[in-house]
UniProtKB/TrEMBL annotation:
This is Phosphotransferase. Residues 36-237 form the Aminoglycoside phosphotransferase domain. The keyword Secreted does not apply. Keywords: Transferase. One of its GO terms (molecular function) is transferase activity. It comes from Streptomyces qinzhouensis. SUPFAM superfamilies: Protein kinase-like (PK-like) (SSF56112). InterPro entries: Aminoglycoside_PTrfase (IPR002575), Kinase-like_dom_sf (IPR011009).
């Protein structure tokens, strides 16, 4: 079998064979650019990413080992990344979730702990604002010409505003995609997962995502519990609106990619989000997926 014929599922099965994990009952959880598979008999999850991200996967594994050594509540990797061209497979503990998700306040406390850690001995990338969205827009064959033009103009405007900002919380290790949906129950403890966007950047970025959650029904009370647990409320800071709007645009990237593959539900949600953004409705409700 050549690498071009290999599927994500085949890569997972081969990676598990090499690491001694059983693939009995293998289930697909998600199958997009990053595939996610459940290994039920191992109580594990496999994530499949393009092989070009192998170095990033190894960096992340090193960082998570360091975080675990500091007692920080991350999702735990089960093995080193396994290269299965044209993919790299990472293997993680699986945390079955109850009906009620962790509260927003739990994330506030976790981020406070994260932002107080010393500098990690790992070469982390610098945060690149809206870089992935820019790539998605350039490659898209789904977006209309006027939509592309608006996104380019809006991205340029936000990047200019971003570069003028002063960040009271300073720069350091940030999760990069911290929002309550990336927290998981582990018994009575709450863990933080999905570290693919970890970087060095302004700490306010990790707070802005929870504020952007009003798009999905997050309440003022939930946001208050989040800022109380973190110990800082960025609401009075004039830069918060810029970061929240950047987050709005950032979320479009995955929908553009999925729409390009023919996913009609993703295309409909993409159009809805673009319509609300272009008409200036910062609290209009969006679908979660």
């Amino acid at each position: 079998m050549t690498s071009t014929q290999r599927t994500q599922e085949t890569a997972v099965r081969d990676a598990c064979r090499r690491t001694g994990l059983s693939t009995a009952g293998l289930e697909v959880i998600r199958q997009h650019a990053t595939g996610v598979y459940l290994l039920p008999t191992e109580r594990a999850v496999a994530r499949v990413r393009p092989a070009a991200e192998s170095a990033a996967a190894r960096m992340l594994a090193e960082l998570l080992r360091w975080l675990i050594g500091h007692g920080f509540p991350v999702v735990e990797p089960l093995a080193e990344p396994v290269e299965e061209p044209p993919y790299v497979v990472t293997l993680w503990s699986h945390y079955p979730q109850p009906t009620t998700p962790p509260p927003a306040g739990a994330l506030g406390g976790i981020l406070r702990e994260l932002h107080c850690l010393p500098e990690p001995p790992v070469a982390l990338p610098s945060y690149q604002p809206l870089a992935s969205l820019t790539t998605s827009v350039k490659r898209s064959h789904t977006l209309e010409t006027d939509e592309c033009a608006w996104l380019v103009e809006m991205t340029d405007k936000l990047l200019y505003e971003y570069r003028q900002l002063d960040f009271p919380l300073g720069r350091g290790l940030i999760h990069g995609d911290a929002y309550p949906g990336n927290t998981l129950w582990d018994g009575e403890q709450v863990r933080l997962g999905d570290w693919d966007e970890v970087a060095v950047g302004p700490r306010e970025l990790d707070l802005a995502n929870t504020f952007q959650g009003v798009r999905y029904g997050r309440t003022a009370e939930e946001i208050q519990s989040f800022t109380d647990a973190y110990g800082h409320d960025p609401s009075p800071w004039p830069g918060l609106r810029t970061l929240v709007t950047m987050r709005d645009l950032h979320t479009l990237g995955s929908f553009i990619q999925r729409a390009d593959t023919g996913d009609q539900a993703a295309a409909a949600e993409l159009r809805h989000r673009l319509d609300t953004l272009r008409s200036g409705r910062p609290r209009a409700q969006w679908g979660r997926h």
